[in-house]
Amino acid sequence: MLSTTNPSLAGQRVTKELGTVRGIVVRSRSVIGNIGASIQTIFGGDITLYTELCEHARQDAYERMCAQARTLGANAITGLRYDATEIAPSVTEVLCYGTAVVVEPGA
After folding, report:
1. Strand pairing class (2-3; 12-28)
2. Cα–chain-centroid distance for residue 86?
3. pLDDT tens, 41-85?
4. DSSP states of 24-38 as a string?
5. Span 2-105: which CATH code?
6. Is pLDDT larger for residue 98 or for residue 90?
7. Mean pLDDT calculated for residue range 11-36
8. CA nearest 37: which of 26, 53, 48, 52?
9. Would you list the domain boundaries of the chain?
10. Edge-to-edge, what's the strand order for the sheet holding 76-88?
């Protein structure tokens, strides 16, 4: 699946717009994960436990969005964006969305 944050893909011509697609993931941080991350904050620097959690949540949301686009017949997504909202303490929704399109090589 081709994807871009731009409204168009370089070297591709949009032949059909299929509408907005999205992938949503809701994740919680475990008590053990929070303790581990708290220990990491003592030493400063990258809090790898949270970085990994965020990366997995974004990847899962992206894959769900791509799956929805494929069911519509898309081969690309334009205007790709991410959003995150804390739903409750230690519970976060990650949303990935964009416009499902059909593209073919061309200008």
Report:
1. unpaired
2. 16
3. 666 667 677 788 889 999 999 999 999 999 999 999 999 999 999
4. EEEEE--HHHHHHHH
5. 3.30.110.70
6. 98
7. 84
8. 48
9. 2-105
10. 2-3, 76-88, 91-105, 12-28
Judged on CB neighbours under 10 Å (0-12, 13-18, 19+), 29 is middle
C-alpha to C-alpha distance for 28 and 88, rounded to whole angstroms: 9
What single letter denotes the amino acid at residue 86? Answer: E
Task: Give residue 52's pLDDT.
Answer: 85
Query: And the tokens for 33?
Result: 């994960």
Angle at 51 between CA 48 and CA 52, to 5 degrees: 85
Decide which of 80 and 28 is more confident.
Answer: 80
Q: How is residue 4 written in tokens?
A: 């871009």
Dihedral pair phi/psi, residue 37, rounded to 5°: -65, -35
Average pLDDT, the chain: 88
